[in-house]
Amino acid sequence: MTPIGWIVLLTTVLGIVGYGLWTARGHTSASDYLRGGADLKWGTIGLSVMATQASAITFLSTPGQGYEGGLAFVQNYLGLPIAMIVICAVFIPIYYRLKVTTAYEFLGQRFDQKTRLLAAGLFLVQRGLAAGITIYAPAIIVSSVFYWPLQPTILLTGILVILYTVTGGTRTVSLTQKYQMLIILIGMTIAFGYVVNGLPAEVSFGDALYIAGMHDRLEAISFSVDPSTRYTIWTGLIGGTFLALSYFGTDQSQVQRYLAGSSETASRWGLMFNAVLKIPMQFAILLLGVLLFVFYHFQQPPIFYNEAAIEQVASEVRAPIELEFRDAFASRGVLLETALSERAQSGVASAETRAGILEQTELMEAQRGAFKTALIEANPDADTQDADYIFLNFVLGHLPGGLVGLLVAVIFLAAMSSTASELNALASTTMNDGYKTLVHKTGKDGHYVWVARILTLVWGTVAVSFAMTLTLFDNLIEAVNIIGSLFYGTILGIFLVAFFFKRIGGHAAFFAGVCAECIVLALYFSPMDIGYLWFNLIGCILAVIIAVLAQSILPKGRTSAMESS
Amino acid sequence: MSKTIKKPTNWRIVYAAVLFWLVLMIVLMRMLTKAYS
User: Fold this and answer.
1) Whose CA is closest to A158, among A528, A551, A460?
2) Is the pTM of this model over 0.90?
């Protein structure tokens, strides 16, 4: 990175950390620390909810998803607006009425302590794992690209987040996220502009889409009913709704964001902001990946996007592979010129030219495959997935120095904003649902603030330690979604029982939660091929059905401290 | 001193608008899929 890149990177990241510490000054009560003082406006809540969901993985992996698989991944988000409406209409009024600090506190009031602890425990396990991945994902990629040592990169990112999260708590997390998200959106918009601008002058935006469509990269909406197809409108609308309902309605890292609102109305508008903007944002990031795919039709791509790994293969082995790769690229370039002139004349390229282009693309992919085989032979531990490196590779090679610094800052800010929410939520859940109910029921306000700070530090240390021991998943954004899907369904099922089945008591809800989670994990580890989004639905339905059945057998237990509606 | 009384939000209309926006996005993305397949 150039000196100006370093200046931009350090100024941006340290500026945000400094702002976080500045907002944390003055006296903080336990309620301020855990609930954020309840004075945030809807815009801050909206950006804070968006920043919590959009981790660095979103900005590194999603363009890679677009490049390799096209726009299909956008369907994952189709259920989000529906879920937001349900949360605004049902969840938020109850959370506000009961004045809860964590979502699980509601279960304690509605059922009993064991059900509250079960849901809080499931959250802590899955979110604790995810927090490690949130820090690890950008660190492995950035350190590999810039030849930075991995462990100190993880450690430094972790320390910076822990610093302002421990000091300021919920309010600081939300306020810093507002600016983090704004910088992220500016950075991604600039990157998008550079990709479009990087296409040859004679290639119009329509031509770029035409080339992408030729390679099936523009299939945004699929009506396929094949259950093993990962992304369809059905998985999105049904599985995606349940995932989003569970994530935004019951995951404390999100619930904490909107409960910091100045009013119920502010919280609702914050979520509606996301209901409207989330799909276009994900669509734009995927389209960025698709356009990168087209961009590399006119610019020679590297044989492997993690260029640091290329040198691991001996030059005499990789030279013939690279030669064939370049030959195929050159042949495809000639055919593309023909295709575009045919399109200019008759609206479409001839079938023969299209087939030729696809053949050369396949040839290039075959050479990439040959290189990956050679890489594994040279280093059996090497990671052959390079999708997460595609965007950063482009940034590094085609953006000016200062903007490289800004885009690297975007990646770190995204990692920090998500991690801050996670640590904040993990600490408040442990504090509110564990420490306050099991260990120390009556204490002074200052005592709880300090315990919450220590717990944030402990969870930060756990996340950083976990990040330091991870190895790369197939695709990091999927890894986070898979882990979430395995637990979210059950948690959501327990909450739906709490909201809508007022006759069901604590014993049945607890029994249903345990059974549903065991069945979901058994199904995941079984040889059956089930698209992971379906686990959200399966876990949820199982929890509800088992609770209804168990209620007729088990003693009723306490049903409610409130009347569920 | 006059104080402006804010009208409460009609959430049903907001939710209906969000659902309409979702359907519109699905239709537009499907049209994109069809146009370039």
Assistant:
1) A460
2) no
In angstroms, the CA A422 to CA A351 distance is 52
Could you give the 3-state DSSP secondary structure of residue A261?
strand
What are the E-state strand segments in A153-238? none
Interface test with A, best of B9, B11, B15, B19 (most A CBs within 10 A): B15
Interval A295-316: pLDDT, tens: 999 999 999 998 888 888 888 8
Q: CA-nearest residue of chain A to B26?
A: A221
Question: pLDDT tens, A415-468?
Answer: 888 888 888 889 888 988 888 888 877 778 788 888 889 999 999 999 898 888
Secondary-structure breakdown of chain A: helix, strand, coil percentages, each rounded to the nearest 5 = 80, 0, 20
Tell me if A89 and B15 make a contact (CB, 8 A cut-off): yes
Report CB contact under 8 Å: B32, A218.
Answer: yes
Q: Please compute Rg for chain B using Cα positions.
A: 18
User: Chain A interface, mutation test: which of B14, B23, B25, most A Cβ atoms within 10 Å?
Assistant: B25
Angle between helix axes A113-146 and A476-500 (nearest 10 degrees) is 160
Q: What is the ipTM of this complex?
A: 0.90
Per the CB < 8 A criterion, the answer to whether A67 and A290 are in contact is yes
Determine whether the interchain pair B18/A276 forms a contact, defined as Cβ–Cβ distance below 8 Å.
Answer: yes
